[in-house]
Amino acid sequence: MGLKANKIFFVILKLAISSTLLYIVLSKTGADKVFDTLKHMSLPAFASAMLLYMLAQLISAVRWKLLLPEIVGIKKIFSLYMIGAFFNNFLPGVIGGDAVKGYYLYRATGDGNLSLASIFMDRYIGFIGLITICTIAFPFGFQYFHGSRIEWLLPLIVLSFIIISLLIFGLRLGQRIKFISEFYNSFHAYRNQKGVLGKVFALSVLIQFAGIFSVYLIAYGLGQHIPLLAFLIFLPLIILFTMIPLSISGLGVRESSFVLFFGLIGIRPEIATAISLSWFMTVLASSLIGLVEYIKYKKEIMTIEVR
Q1: Which of 91, 169, 177, 187 has the fewest C-beta atoms lying within 10 Å of its C-beta?
Q2: Number of domains the chain contains
Q3: pTM, to two decimals
């Protein structure tokens, strides 16, 4: 009962944070200006962004498949990926998408540690791919940050990530904690699969670039000719901020970040907010496929149980 009450409290807190941040952003930018900008969205650009998102999800399923045994087919993995996307975007804070993926993967493999380790590795290397893109692009776009209060934000994030990774995985902190020691063993088993990890990393970079380019298309569809370099630098940072579990699906945090970062290159707040909301809408629309997959999956399970 106490855990359920805490969960409800945190969902309400996240909702309050998202609502507050959105209210502040729309108040300062002008909600009418934002929605007027959204009216000019090009449908082909919106559809193209949705297709890129779906392509990224398919490649993500291929990446996850590399981390799993042969007994799990790519079709099932793609289905689980879309189900996870649906839960992340439509039921955030209630049931996490990764938790749903992990549960159903466990049902398929019977190996809880493998399920947890593969999901973590999938996310972890995806994060490395995101950081890599931003780090490579950063020197070419340093002028965007130069003289601002966040000039050294990216180097600080990269350094922190390296230190935390070394502490957790290099020194294996937590190895002595019984309930996660087996996870460590499953995770470290991947270290000997360098060929697999190389492919997973390459796919991660491709996935992240597809996601970044989809936002570039959205901006273009709104009539904004913003350099691709700006997206390669700003989007990874924005994604990192939205990953902090403070809001509902990153709402409010994402829009505030768009206004902050794209404001560095002179993009008006209402334009930045419109790009952010359009991106979120493409993700929401695409994630509805996960609902269809979830219904199909539940029917399959019920059929098996009846037999």
Answers
A1: 177
A2: 1
A3: 0.89
